[in-house]
Amino acid sequence: MGQSELDKVKEAANKAINSKVANFRKEYDSKMGQHKQIAQKLERLKDAKRLAEREMSELNSFKSKVNREVKKTAQGSFKGSRRKKFEQSSEQIIKAVKSEYDKNQDEINALNRKIAKLEFEESSVGGAMAEINATISGLMAAIK
């Protein structure tokens, strides 16, 4: 095999490698787009979680206030039907606050699950990007 034939073989091999590199770069760009979308979703979910946690804190403060006021008023001297109505109303308020608190806690738990899932996806996509990048580097090193 002469030098010109060897050069043609090398050139053909380099073209094939460049073609593979181009395909891997397209795949890398696609993964990069996925990664950005996941990061944006994560940011929105984390913002929603922060807001929900702030609301939970406010609700918890309100719940404590209601309980304090109910206990303080329960020690009052009124009796009979007024006392019964007060106790019924107090129970309804406490149940409503507890229900809202539990609902918010469930929402936070759901957000935590979604965040964990997206963080796993983000990690997987990042790993795939690293593998693609390593493959591209290896192919580029083969071109001489």
TrEMBL record:
Annotated keywords: Coiled coil
Top-level taxon in the UniProt lineage: Bacteria
Coiled coil (UniProt feature): 35-65, 94-121
Identification of the protein by name: DUF5082 domain-containing protein
